[in-house]
Amino acid sequence: MPTVKVTVHFPCPVERVWQAVTDLTNTAWRSDLKRVEMLDETHFVEYTKSGYATNFTVTACEPLRRWVFIMENGNMSGLWEGVFETVERGTRIHCTETVNARHWWMRPFVPGYLKRQQRLYLDDLRKELLK
User: Fold this and answer.
1) How much is the pLDDT for 1?
2) How far is CA 124 from CA 37, 47, 107, 109, in A?
């Protein structure tokens, strides 16, 4: 399964970064999403601008430190982990995403897709945190 790891620094307190990342009731800053539906405390569904749904199950939540979930839709299944770290002048996040394509012909495209998605998410997050 392809895995993409990225580490990013944000010049703001870990509390602010954690709040932006984990507050699923405020996702307007995400340029790729239409909406998020909360099913319960550990399950939610993200809908892309085109309406495509991805199901998420939170498997670990250590406030201000670590957030982990599994994700699944018709094209893939996988795991995302974010590790939050207080550093000098801000917060560092270590993001790891591992995805398995459900269709063999998609597998060659997964690494590039993951990199683009992570970059878009982190760019959107940076804009949200710096406004």
Assistant:
1) 80
2) 20, 16, 26, 23
